[in-house]
Description:
alpha+beta
Amino acid sequence: MTLPKGVIDPEPKTPDEMFVGWASAPKVDRRFLLGALPLGLAGAGGGAWLIANELDDPGAGVWLTGATHEVAGALVTDPYPMLRLADPSMPGGVRTVLIVAQGKCTSALQLDDQRGRPVIARGVLIQRKGRQMLEVPLFQDDWLSPTKMDMIAAQLSPPVKPLGAAHLSGAIMDTKCFFGVMRPGRGKTHKACASLCIRGGIPPSFWVRTKTGAEAVLLMTTADGGPMPMDILPLVADPVEAAGEIVQVGDLLQFRADVAAYRRI
């Protein structure tokens, strides 16, 4: 049956719009995406800001990999490899630069022949808040060479000033990553790396914060001032406390306490 013309206008048939990869997106999809895109970007940016705001401050450490630096001073290996430079502006008249190797193999450095002598060391500087470290190439023989220079007595035997007993809480970290190679170089996520660094001969440090929020980084030694043994490794990066003695050796602060003095908190 055919209806009289003009009585009913039949709906025009509209083909279903379907996404085809090589064709233009359907209009309805384009409108949705144009409206949702600003909201999605705003949400992603806000979420990123919230996550970043909850992270710890990575600290002020820097790793100056863009240049090779030369440091001249007296080579010392006790309790850890370091160079002492004559510097009247520093406590004890010396400035200390710790020595570490590339990677985690500082204990493999051959230093005995030059120990106690004036040398020039070449490497990459790592520094944090006035503390310096020189990262030297492990598989090169020319990074260390003897030199002629006048040395003062404090370079080989700096003044030792006991500052008293202290009960401190904080975390044990390796100095290399904490000084600037990793940012941040502390916390649970850094436990495995810090343990490997300390096992490889990199000096451990005790990172503490005072009640006022001030930060202190103390070089860790045994109670008699020797290098920390590997028994300390299970406690690395965990919240710990210990009773010991703070001693100033030249320009460095040491926290002297045996492994048995540390406990988790």
